[in-house]
Amino acid sequence: MIIELTALHYVYLLFILIIIFAMILKKDITLICIIGIFALGALGTESVYKSLMGVFNSFIYATKELLPTILIISVITAMSNLLVESGINQELVSPFKKIIKSYGVAFWVIGLVMMTISWFFWPSPAVALVGALLIPIARKAGLPAMGAAVAMNIFGHGIALSSDYVIQAAPKITADAAGIEVSQVISASVPLTITMGVVTTVAAFYLIRKDIKSGALTVQEEEMEEIEYKSLNLISSIKVRRVLAMAILILFAVDIIIMVFAKLQGGDATALIGGTSILILSVIAVLSYGKKSLESITNNLVKGLQFGFKIFGVVIPVAAFFYLGDSAFNEIYGKILPQSSTGIVNDLGAALANLVPVNSAVAAITLTSAGAITGLDGSGFSGISLVGSIARLFSTAIGGGIDTLTALGQIAGIWVGGGTIVPWALIPVAAICRVDAFELAKRNLKPVIIGLSVTTVVAMLII
Question: What superkingdom heads the lineage (predicted)?
Answer without folding.
Answer: Bacteria
